[in-house]
Backbone:
């Protein structure tokens, strides 16, 4: 099984070559590659030996795993997951306890330098990382050990990519992203809370096809999926341009599907593929269901103020600072005013009257 | 620090600091001005000029024909960019949302393309004023660093706002952060430059109007 190519595996699972080519063409177009590259994708992916993947779950909610495995199965995407050798994933694997950890260590040794490391969840580093451990090993240590032998790392979900919810203020566990700890390996961020299943399979397909990581933006995200904002690709965008907005979740504007900017949609500052790829097999996505974008694929989206306040409003109230400033300004103004009066009075007191006699001196 | 961090800072602590400095500075300046006081008038005037003071606050906004003929460019561009600035400030939807969040008042926004057009006209008018200031030898000689600073901090919010709206040059998140930061720079600089005229012009107009209509001797 281990030496089986991807195409062999798919054939065994009843997926035709035609179905596989369709998947490759879709993947190529999702990655914004020219149509001619579909054949290259198919060829490379068909030949690829099952790559070893070690999946580490740290401070997370398993939502990312749920998202990826729950995707309208059986699908070609889910079979791609069968087709990789997922040697360690403590939610999905059968083994548990010491057996599971042994499997991980064995797999790491066997494929040292070649395996793909997928991480979901943030890593607590405060107090030497005691806040999250697996088999008595802190997440921090496990990540360092596993990353040392990895060919590349994929940070799945906003927690692994940017710290996510555990990183939100006041961040009691000192949660950080993978990129804060590992500096010497190629890291692909696939943020989202959770990320779109097709995006993670697309990223893996790219890695398998080209043997390299895709073009990334300045936040480490593949440009093919995170290159454009939700707002730019939103089907409600024309309403924004026309100035038609829903004011509440049940007014006429909401019923007519108008823009959700005033209800706090973070689409303009959020980069993700939701508006084009959609969710649940292309059924719908948050904005289509009538709720504004939360901005889940961006760093610190939990600390960005209310989900239901417009993007242009202050995150924290300014009244305290304003009141203090007015009080201090008034006090300083009175002090300066008094000083000015004193100067004036002193000048007046020091004033000497000139008489004709003085001038004739 | 990434673009999102910058945006969050500008919408949170940055805004608090800027509003604080703005209010501190303005209150300080106004107290300072008022506390200078005026000498007690020992010979009561026959008629006071308060009415004229109030009238002048508004009548001075209408250009004097002779003055207009002497420098039509200054008057025209001046009107355009002042009005344009306030239209963009008060009638762009995200701005209305901001005003509502801070003081609770709101009004219906006009279609964004109209505000967008006003922004373009305002930007052009501001550029013309700068060129005129530099090209005209007298104006150039009279101009100080403070004048160019005031121009710059007025121009930047409009420019960055326009570029953010149209997704020009930089990513929207970063451009929006820069736009908010440029507004915060305007707020910080405001009390310590000629920009205070936004408030003090009404005081000085009232003072002049009152003085001119006054029938009496200030002793």
Residues:
């Amino acid at each position: 099984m281990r030496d089986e190519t991807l195409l062999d595996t798919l054939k065994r699972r009843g997926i035709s070559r035609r179905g596989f080519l369709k998947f490759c063409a879709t993947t190529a177009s999702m990655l914004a590659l020219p149509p001619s590259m579909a054949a290259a994708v198919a060829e490379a992916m068909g030949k690829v030996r099952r790559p070893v993947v070690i999946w580490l779950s740290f401070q997370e909610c398993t939502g990312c795993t749920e998202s990826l495995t729950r995707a309208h199965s059986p699908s070609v995407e889910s079979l791609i997951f069968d087709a990789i050798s997922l040697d360690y994933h403590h939610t999905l694997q059968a083994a548990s306890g010491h057996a599971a950890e042994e499997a991980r260590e064995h797999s790491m040794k066997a494929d040292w330098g070649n395996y793909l490391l997928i991480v979901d969840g943030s890593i607590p580093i405060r107090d030497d990382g005691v806040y999250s451990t697996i088999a008595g090993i802190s997440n921090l240590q496990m990540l360092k050990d596993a990353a040392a032998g990895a060919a590349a790392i994929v940070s799945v979900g906003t927690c692994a990519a940017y710290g996510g919810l555990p990183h939100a203020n006041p961040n009691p566990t000192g949660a950080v992203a993978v990129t804060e700890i590992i500096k010497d390996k190629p890291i692909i961020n696939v943020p989202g809370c959770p990320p779109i299943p097709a995006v993670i399979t697309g990223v893996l397909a790219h890695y398998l096809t080209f043997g390299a990581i895709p073009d990334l933006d300045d936040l480490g995200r593949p440009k093919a999926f995170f290159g454009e904002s939700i707002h730019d690709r939103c089907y409600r965008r024309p309403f924004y341009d026309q100035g038609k907005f829903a004011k509440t979740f049940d007014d006429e504007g909401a019923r007519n599907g108008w823009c959700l900017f005033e209800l706090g949609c973070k689409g303009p500052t959020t980069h993700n593929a939701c508006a084009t790829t959609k969710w649940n097999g292309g059924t719908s996505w948050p904005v289509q269901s009538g709720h504004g974008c939360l901005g889940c694929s961006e760093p610190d989206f939990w600390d960005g103020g209310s989900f239901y306040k417009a993007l242009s409003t202050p995150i924290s109230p300014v009244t305290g600072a304003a009141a203090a400033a007015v009080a201090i300004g008034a006090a300083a103004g009175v002090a300066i005013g008094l000083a000015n009066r004193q100067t004036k009075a002193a000048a007046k007191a020091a004033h000497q009257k000139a008489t004709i006699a003085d001038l004739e001196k | 620090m990434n673009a999102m961090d910058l945006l969050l800072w500008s919408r949170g602590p940055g805004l608090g600091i800027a509003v604080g400095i703005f209010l501190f500075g303005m209150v300080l300046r106004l107290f300072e001005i008022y506390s200078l006081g005026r000498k007690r008038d020992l010979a009561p005037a026959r008629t006071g000029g308060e009415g004229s003071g109030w009238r002048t606050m508004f009548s001075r906004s209408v250009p004097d024909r002779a003055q207009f003929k002497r420098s039509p460019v200054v008057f025209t561009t001046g009107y355009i960019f002042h009005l344009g600035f306030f239209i963009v400030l008060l009638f762009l939807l995200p701005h209305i949302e901001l005003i509502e969040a801070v003081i609770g008042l709101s009004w219906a926004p006009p279609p964004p393309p109209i505000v967008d057009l006003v922004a373009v006209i305002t930007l052009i008018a501001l550029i013309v004023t700068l060129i005129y200031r530099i090209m005209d030898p007298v104006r150039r000689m009279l101009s100080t660093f403070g004048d160019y600073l005031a121009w710059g901090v007025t121009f930047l919010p409009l420019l960055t706002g326009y570029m953010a709206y149209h997704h020009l040059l930089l990513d929207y998140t970063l451009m929006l952060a820069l736009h908010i930061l440029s507004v915060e720079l305007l707020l910080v600089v405001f009390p310590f430059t000629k920009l205070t005229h936004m408030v003090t012009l009404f005081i000085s107009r009232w003072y002049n109007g009152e003085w001119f209509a006054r029938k009496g001797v200030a002793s």
Remarks:
- The CA atoms of residues 48 and 262 of chain A lie 49 Å apart.
- The mean pLDDT of chain A is 85.
- Chain A touches chain B through 46 residues (CB under 8 Å).
